[in-house]
Amino acid sequence: MKYLLLFAAGALAFAQGQYDLLLQGGHVVDAKNKISAIRDVAILDGKIAEVAPHIDPKKAFKVVNVRGLYVSPGLIDIHVHFYTNTGEARSYAGDLSLPPDGFTFRNGVTTVADAGCAGWRNFEDYKQRIIDRSKTRILVFLNIVGNGMRGGKYENNLADMDPKPAAEMALKHKDVIVGIKTAHYAGPEWTPVENAVKAGTIANIPVMVDFGSNRNERPMPELLTKKLRPGDIYTHAYSGLRDELDATGHVNPGMIEGRKRGVIFDVGHGGGSFAWRIAVPAMKEKFYPDSISTDLHSGSMNAGMKDMLNVMDKFIAMGMTVDDVLARSTWNPAREIKHEELGNLSVGSPADVAVLKLEKGQFGYTDMYGARFDGTQKLTCEVTLKGGKVVYDLNGTTRPDWKTLPKDYRHTGDARWDAITPSRSIP
Asked: Which of 149, 218, 343, 380 could form a disulfide with 92 if both were Cys (CB 3.0 to 4.6 A apart)?
């Protein structure tokens, strides 16, 4: 009888609540809608239903107090490596990649774009093995190399860089494949870039370039001023490995001209692509990134790059505002990958939300060489929602105190808002 009463009470609340979930009193930062203010956010059926200075809590089935916290669209990390579980050693289509759900939600990340782990030959294996089974929304930059990012003998094989099958695979899976990637090429030819651009043009999607070895035959300024199209993405923008600063210590004029042409500059921190001695001078010259990304893989996650929030913290430490950093981690990348339904809190958009705490104190951030930069602010993820459901809750912010529950309490979640525990109706 007790469980029947509890279930009946839940059913009554379900019927009465206009909204499934209400995030109350947080500082909303939504770059698309130019909001940076205290707002309530209401969610219904996995979508943003209302954003307003005050929403009557009686309209919501579940109310969560997020006062003193930032409420942002779910973060979008457009440079990750998640094609794991194949068993292939020393390969980004294998052991160098990571399982996605273990490294996303706890950082407020709800959407990622894998940066070239798979090519057209193995993309569908990646999709079946990882993408279709993940709670994280995984989109993909398809490698121009048919075999994908499996090491030098594959990535330097010019014969396996055919734009036609790459474009065909991208068009076949245009709901998942958002771009073409070229990476790690060591030779002097422009073939990887040129063929990636050809594939991107056929499929009408952008190209992301990790420019590989720095070669005199293919200088970086030529890449940015002649080879890439507006909307194409230059990742690892602060690596210093490809003359991002010129001989005088200033931002390479080719990067400035590339930006004027509409080339996008992405962080792609990784384990070997971010140095303070490059980033700090560039930031002083106001050469800010268009998007912030991690280049997350097994070799970067415990090195200078820890996670998405750690990379964002570094740009706050270098003088960017929280609002600017959030824009470059939400709305900017959503536009870059042509998924403008994401990265915002517009009514009707997917209810992907990151609730973040800005901590004050003394913190240290390291680059790829282990050099430290001191900061006084640090973002921590308190709660992550994907599609209106709580998928991560660091401190039980969305949970009832155990002393308020029945003596023999079990499941306390409800399918309307909770994706962590089963529904109350399950015994």
From this structure: 149
Cα–Cα distance, 210 to 180 (Å, whole number) = 11
Residue 378 within a domain: no
Rounded to two decimals, what is the model's pTM? 0.95
Q: What is the CATH number of the domain that holds 321?
A: 3.20.20.140
- From 188, 129, 220, 121, select the one nearest 161 (Cα to Cα): 121
- For residue 118, what are the domain limits? 74-356
pLDDT digits (tens, 9 = 90+) for 270-326: 999 999 999 999 999 999 999 999 999 999 999 999 999 999 999 999 999 999 999
DSSP 103-167: SSGGGTEEEEEEEEEEETTTHHHHHHHTGGG-SSEEEEEEESSTT-SS-HHHHT-GGG--HHHHH
Q: Which helix (H) or strand (E) holds 373?
A: strand 372-386
Q: Which of 12-21, 64-73, 154-163 bottoms out in mean pLDDT, i.e. has the lowest?
A: 12-21
- In which element (H, E) is residue 177 found? strand 177-182
For residue 422, name the pLDDT band (cuts at 50, 70, 90).
low
pLDDT at residue 426 tops 90: no
pLDDT tens for residues 174-207? 999 999 999 999 999 999 999 999 999 999 999 9
Vertex 356: Cα angle to 291 and 51 (nearest 5):
90
DSSP code for 304: S
Contact 141, 187 (CB under 8 A): no
* Closest among 322, 392, 318, 385 to 357, alpha carbons compared: 322
Q: Does residue 82 lie within any of the structural domains?
A: yes
The total of structural domains in the chain comes to 1
Kind and range of the H or E element at 12?
A: helix 2-16
pLDDT in tens, 37-79: 999 999 999 999 999 999 999 999 999 999 999 999 999 999 9
In whole angstroms, give the CA distance from residue 418 to residue 95: 33
Torsion sign over Cα 27, 29, 35, 39? negative
22/198 Cα distance (integer angstroms): 46
Yes or no: say if 375 and 382 are a contact pair by the CB < 8 Å rule.
no
- Residue in this structure with the two tokens 């036609």, named with its chain if needed: 164
Asked if residue 31 belongs to a domain, the reply is no
Q: Is residue 85 part of a domain?
A: yes
β-bridge partners, 28: 37, 71
